[in-house]
Write a structure and sequence with these properties.
Keywords: NADP, Oxidoreductase. By secondary structure, this protein is an alpha/beta fold. It is built from 10 helices and 12 strands. It has a domain of about 210 residues: NAD(P)-binding Rossmann-like Domain (Rossmann fold, 3-Layer(aba) Sandwich).
């Protein structure tokens, strides 16, 4: 049976991987709308876009964390009000909504992984704006709304930490990287596959609505991620020097602990995402990362 899916934010890092994942399924007809074709802060446009679709995957978001601190109202218009419009349109049309959220809805002061139902408490404007979107989904779509929280996302289709450290590796002898923030680096392609599986399970009535944590298994720090990216790329991990967050003051506070638990995937009969280092090893084989790694290795060999 053919189903129709809509992907918002379709030209972003995650959106492009979701489109590619769905395009490989002959039973899915997918529409991808980028920001220039769908402004989710426009309720009339949202209603028209959602009409006729059975599943909506919302990858549209304000992702500039420091920018949100300076312009919280603008960030909330997208991450909160825009999601409300999507949830309302899905409620009116009967569509399932898969909404991508973030670990930043938590305060980051835990000592063990945050469960899906753990109390929230964002420490910055970005987290507050994303929490507003989560609440809209829960309120308007109690039976057909799915919030998938992710974190430390990287991939081949946009700026991200892994690409940045490999680019810098070709220009700098050493890199100072924060070692006191803990999280779960997640490959966008792996998350796209899990979103597709969750949507199929939702349509089949196998996946209870609610919150799912779409992050990699295991945990590390930004420093640990950089060192592993170096190691897997054939570079010297000791070129990465651990520093505290105070070395890089930012307008928005960052949670120091963003590790999430994954229990709710079992309710849907789906496996959680693989370990972060296994995902990274697979991602680094992509041409864009392989080229960055090759350039960095060449630079390292030429360095005195």
């Amino acid at each position: 049976m053919t189903t129709t899916w809509l992907v918002t934010g379709a030209h972003g890092l995650l959106g492009r991987d979701v489109l590619a994942e769905l395009a490989g399924d002959p039973d899915i007809v997918v529409t991808g709308l980028s920001r220039d074709r769908l402004d989710i802060t426009d309720p009339t446009a949202v209603r028209a876009a959602v009409a006729g679709h059975g599943v909506v995957v919302n990858c549209a978001a304000w992702t500039d964390v420091d920018g949100a601190e300076r312009s919280e109202a603008a960030a909330t218009a997208v991450n909160g009000t825009g999601v409300h419009h999507l949830a309302r349109a899905c409620a009116d049309s009967g569509a399932v909504l898969l909404h991508v959220s973030t670990d930043y809805v938590f305060p980051g002061d835990a000592r063990r992984p945050y469960a899906e139902d753990a109390p929230t408490g964002p420490v910055n404007a970005y987290g507050r704006s994303k929490l507003a979107g989560e609440r809209a989904v829960a309120e308007l779509l109690p039976h057909t709304g799915y919030v998938v929280r992710t974190a430390w996302l990287y991939g081949e289709h946009g700026p991200n930490f892994v690409a940045t450290v490999l680019e810098l590796a070709a220009r700098r002898a050493t890199l100072d990287v924060v070692a006191d923030q803990h999280g779960q680096p997640t490959w966008s392609r792996a998350l796209a596959g899990r979103l597709a599986a969750l949507g199929r399970a939702a349509l089949a009535g196998r996946a209870p609505a609610g919150i799912y944590h779409g992050t990699a298994a295991g945990r590390t720090t930004w420093c640990g991620l950089a060192r592993e990216a170096f190691r897997l790329s054939g570079l010297d991990p000791e070129r990465i020097r651990p520093v505290g967050s105070e070395k890089f003051p930012r307008p928005a506070a960052r949670p120091t602990f963003g590790v999430l638990g994954h229990d709710n995937w079992q309710r849907a009969g789906l496996a959680p995402l693989p370990r972060w280092d296994d995902q990274l090893a697979s991602a680094l084989k992509l041409p864009v990362f392989a080229a960055l790694s090759a350039a960095a290795r060449s630079s390292e060999r030429a360095r005195p």
